[in-house]
Amino acid sequence: METISGHLYDYPKYYDLIFGSDWAAEFKFLKAGFLKYSTRSVHQLFEPACGTGRLLIQFAKSGFEVAGNDLNKHAIDFCNRRLERNGFKPSAYVGDMADFKVKKKVDAAFNMINTFRHLPSETIAEAHLHCVADCLKSGGIYFLGLHLTPQSPPKCATETWSATRGHLSVVSNLWSIAIDKKTRAERIGVTYDVYTPTKQFRIADETVFRTYSAEQMFDLLVKEPRLRLLDMYDFRYDIDSPIDVTADTEDIVYVLKRVWDGVT
Ligand SMILES: C[S@@+](CC[C@H](N)C(=O)[O-])C[C@H]1O[C@@H](n2cnc3c(N)ncnc32)[C@H](O)[C@@H]1O
Question: Model's pTM, two decimal places?
Fold first, then answer.
């Protein structure tokens, strides 16, 4: 199969086919979470690093007012085109999740499936939390979902997804190449194998995720006291089953509430 070296997020059509089909559990969980945790009624949402807007489009269709940013222009164009096609404002824009402001504060925000781990340093991760705290109304909620690096060797080193729409099929593999414990950088390999009736090819990319242990995440979260940790979940996305974090916890969703200067 021909292999092209390309940047994973420069192919929103393939990204969205794979991950866009996997929205329902997160969507249901987030919606239930807004009801469970927010002290205000949730209508306006912001997604930092929204990518193709696979979740934003579902929330828009469900009556929420949505907006988001992302560094990748291809993803933003894809997101806005789909919002417009469905009769919504093209409310996503190119921007950095660690350096953004919103014109109108929102009721809730979310950042799922490891997106946050793209932020390369502690200072930048902290800047992200400050931006989120600034963008939320008092009582608003932030859901932050990522994989922690457990102390024991990870159970699953490779993840595979596949999806088909019409004549297009995509199989994606993602695996951990190596972790540099000192710099907390995990090199990740990713491929998309693309199948159409006339051609087959592979897009191969490498990206870097910052690693977090449970403790390192707690140390980071306390640096933004306006975001108070309420609960934690895992990627089963069961709103009735918060989890206790241990040294071996891998996937986690933090529920953070915007409080005024650390006071509810
Ligand atoms: C795994 S995708 C997730 C997209 C979307 N949040 C979702 O759940 O489908 C990660 C996204 O983060 C974006 N990204 C990475 N670093 C970023 C940054 N500093 N600011 C904004 N977006 C960023 C990438 O361009 C990519 O679209």
Answer: 0.95
